[in-house]
């Protein structure tokens, strides 16, 4: 089969190599899945760089989520068992963790409903307890993770403020349903949030960026607000000033979605059921900006790494469609 493999750590566009290799063999409790669509995520870039919290042995295939078909004909969502990641024609995955692909979504959309939307749902509902009528501030609102949070925030009845970089991404965020869009390149995030909220600030901040985004978030978070730490796409991990959290009375909340697989897998299945219902109702739909064939995977991962993409780029091993 064809698979993209990484033999040394570095930038995705430099270290990913398309090769012919053997199909992976399922171990105990695992199943073989033929990949129909593999969604590109920022962790794929971190895997290539050797900077992710999980470091598979070299060589490995990146790709952390797929939609595909099992040998018994089920259409499923899967998180491949590394080192045999999703940018390949076949993967192996834990059979107990497979989720049924939503009928309302095509393969590319279904692949993109998994980790990003689960992260958004757990973050907004289980961790931050977002309530109808509250104000949600979403950083990188036109990206894959941020766009999911925007849709889920609107579905929860929140007023959503999206932060983006540049006019093209601002247009995407507006189309997603943001009530207000702030272009961080030309506008003052703190001033804009305070003006939009009558000086109160955002009740919940969804931050997959870190760095300067976090620093500005804590300057415009509301009394009893919640800052959700989802990731560090900027490459800068902030050091929170806990005295500031004390005097302003806000919470800093971490979210590592993958831990639910270990500690509460039933919650993941329940979340998937809810996301499937929302997709069937047309309330959420992953923003798939590009569908590329297998040959375009390395370039796609590099673009996500560089922050130049919007929404999701999905790799289709059978050819772009």
Automatic annotation (TrEMBL):
Annotated EC:
1.-.-.-
Q: Which residues form the Enoyl reductase (ER) domain?
A: 13-315
Q: Which SMART domains match?
A: PKS_ER
Native source organism of the sequence: Streptomyces stephensoniae
A Pfam family found in this protein is ADH_zinc_N
Superkingdom field = Bacteria
List the residue ranges of the region (Disordered): 1-26
- Provide the protein name: NADPH:quinone oxidoreductase family protein
Q: Which CDD domains match?
A: QOR1 (cd08241)
């Amino acid at each position: 089969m064809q698979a993209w493999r990484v033999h040394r750590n570095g930038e995705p566009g430099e270290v990913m190599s398309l090769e012919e290799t053997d199909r992976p063999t399922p171990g105990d409790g695992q199943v073989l899945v033929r990949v129909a669509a593999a969604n590109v995520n920022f962790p794929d870039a971190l895997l290539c760089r050797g900077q992710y919290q999980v470091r598979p042995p070299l060589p490995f295939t990146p790709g952390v989520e797929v939609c595909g078909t099992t040998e018994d004909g089920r259409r499923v969502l899967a998180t491949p068992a590394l080192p045999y990641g999703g940018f390949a024609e076949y993967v192996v995955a834990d059979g107990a963790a497979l989720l049924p692909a939503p009928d309302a979504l095509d393969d590319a959309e279904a692949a993109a409903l998994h980790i990003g939307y689960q992260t958004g749902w757990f973050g907004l509902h289980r961790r931050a307890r977002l309530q109808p009528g509250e104000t949600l501030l979403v950083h990188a609102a036109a990206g894959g993770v941020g766009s999911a949070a925007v849709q889920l925030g609107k579905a929860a009845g929140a007023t959503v403020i999206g932060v983006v970089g540049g006019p093209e991404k601002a247009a995407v965020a507006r189309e997603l349903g943001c009530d207000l869009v702030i272009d961080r390149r030309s506008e003052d995030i703190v001033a804009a949030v305070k003006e939009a909220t009558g000086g109160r600030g955002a009740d919940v901040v969804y931050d997959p960026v870190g760095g300067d985004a976090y620093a500005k978030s804590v300057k415009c978070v509301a009394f009893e607000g919640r800052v959700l730490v989802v990731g560090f796409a900027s490459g800068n991990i902030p050091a929170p000033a806990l005295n500031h959290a004390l005097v302003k009375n806000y919470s800093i909340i971490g979210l590592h979605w993958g831990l639910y697989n270990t500690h509460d897998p039933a919650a993941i299945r329940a979340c998937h059921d809810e996301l499937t219902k929302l997709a069937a109702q047309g309330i959420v739909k992953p923003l798939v900006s590009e569908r590329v064939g297998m040959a375009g995977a390395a370039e796609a991962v590099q673009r996500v790494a560089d922050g130049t993409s919007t929404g999701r780029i999905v790799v289709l091993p059978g050819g772009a469609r």
